[in-house]
Amino acid sequence: MTCTTRLPKPVTDVWDWQLEGLCRGRNSAIFFHPENERGYARVARESKAKEICRSCPVLAQCRAHALRAQEPYGVWGGMGEDERRQIIAATRRRLKIA
């Protein structure tokens, strides 16, 4: 018989929150910028994505995931790339000082 004790455990309980996201089934282009998008187009697209996030029932889980995984692209948990970078950098600075 095959030994399965070393196989990874199911992680559905860790990812199930994604099934409830309001972004699910929507065009991902709302949440992830096309190459070279700048200025008003980027601000408008991010604003639209963040508006969807505002009423999302899994906003907190999504935001926590994005910060923990240090998601580099897109709008996650109602935060854009720059907002997440600032929080991650501030956390690193605090940990370095402590």
UniProtKB/TrEMBL annotation:
UniProt key word Transit peptide: no
Q: What is this protein called?
A: Transcriptional regulator WhiB
Name the protein family: Belongs to the WhiB family.
Entry's PROSITE patterns? 4FE4S_WBL
Which terms are listed as keywords in the entry? 4Fe-4S, Cytoplasm, Disulfide bond, DNA-binding, Iron, Iron-sulfur, Metal-binding, Transcription, Transcription regulation
**Where does the 4Fe-4S Wbl-type domain lie?**
22-86
Q: Where in the cell is it found?
A: Cytoplasm
Which GO MF terms are attached to this record?
Answer: 4 iron, 4 sulfur cluster binding; dinitrosyl-iron complex binding; DNA binding; metal ion binding; protein-disulfide reductase [NAD(P)H] activity
Task: Give the GO cellular component terms, alphabetically.
Answer: cytoplasm
One GO term of the biological process aspect: cell redox homeostasis
